[in-house]
Amino acid sequence: MNDKADILGEMNDRSREVFRRVVEGYLADGAPVGSRTLTRDFSEKVSAATIRNVMQDLEYLGLLDSPHISAGRIPTQQGLRMFVDGLLEIGDPDDHDREQIDATMGSNSEDVSGLLDRVGSALSGVTRGASLVMTPKREAPIRHIEFVSLSPDRSLVVLVFADGHVENRLFTPPPGQTPSSMREAANFLNALIEGRTLSELQGVIAAQISTRRQEIDSLARALVESGLAVWEGEGDQIERLIVRGRANLLSGGGEEEDLEKIRQLFDDLERKRDIAEFLELAEEGEGVRIFIGSENKLFSLSGSSLVVSPYMNSDRKIIGAVGVIGPTRLNYGRIVPIVNYTAQLVGKLISDRK
User: Fold this and answer.
1) What residues does 258 pair with on adjacent strands?
2) Across 52-190, where does the E strand assignment appear?
3) Domain extents for the chain?
4) Distance (Å, rounded) from C-alpha 171 to C-alpha 347?
5) Highest taxon of the source (predicted)?
6) Which fold has domain 95-129+245-352?
């Protein structure tokens, strides 16, 4: 089958209008759209039989589907993707939506965590979906690193940042560590810090370990590598996700099977399964991205959609993201401008605090 752009380009005006109206009708109320409904306000005078033939052709192309025994059609995931990519018209958020977002984030508080928590609540409230907010990575330079042994199989790496923030992270050290190996490991790291951030330090450490294996004791080297794994793994990301609005999805009606899928989605979110994949999505480029159903592993089971946009600091570096989760029949034309506007506003507010 041709790709989506080719299919859309090869459609005649009648097929394109039938397809667009079926998708828009489905997104509006979640119900299948029948041929008789379309004939009432179609741009040209055509019979219901003609419309049915067009809908059958669109179903053959994999763009529409017939749910259960209904005479109407709904868009498939492929159809929704083609609509979003080729026919969706995106404008600016309306004045009411913009005012709600502005009012929520109008505080002069210096607490960025509080700001982002309010962002999540505002997004879920305005969109009536669930919101995800990825908080900024801590990019302040590190002043000092220390290892603390808590038990034979548990250690703590203490990170002291130049801005005064202190972070403690638990990890499993290599067996047989000694006080001297822990001191050697800390000395090795502190000699490399020189005002570097965590992300900058990781690459330097990896290179140094590979070239100085003879100079650093094997046990100390293993301790450094164990602690480094903590910085690179999920521990650096678990605390960076704020989820708000679970009740919005659960209270939206629908069959019990659909509600169970949504509950499973939030169980996965709360256990932070596959969150790293979500967090990486927004860091791959600028602009709003839309993931429909199985296009994102995290939401494939529930059949949900994710609209997400990164936000940037004053240096135009992506430091986080905001997004909205909802059913695949989201009002994309309304949600996309809201997410985009919110991301731009958050980036500006965070940049202005520096």
Assistant:
1) none
2) 64-65, 74-75, 130-134, 142-151, 154-161, 166-171
3) 4-86, 95-129+245-352, 142-236
4) 33
5) Bacteria
6) Beta-Lactamase (3.30.450)
Residue-wise pLDDT tens digits, 195-229: 788 777 777 887 887 777 666 777 777 887 777 77
95-129+245-352 and 142-236: same fold?
no
CA distance 214 to 147: 21
**CATH code that applies to domain 4-86:** 1.10.10.10
Question: Which strand (E) or helix (H) includes residue 312?
Answer: strand 304-312
- Cα angle for residues 60, 63, 68 (degrees, 5° grid): 80
The domain 142-236: what is its CATH number? 3.30.390
Burial (CB count within 10 angstroms: exposed 0-12, middle 13-18, buried 19+), residue 334 = middle
CA angle 263, 85, 36 (to 5 degrees): 80
DSSP label of 34: -
pLDDT tens profile 329-345: 888 999 999 999 999 98
Q: Please provide residue 309's backbone torsions phi and psi, each rounded to the nearest 5 degrees.
A: -140, 135
233 touches 221 (CB < 8 A): no
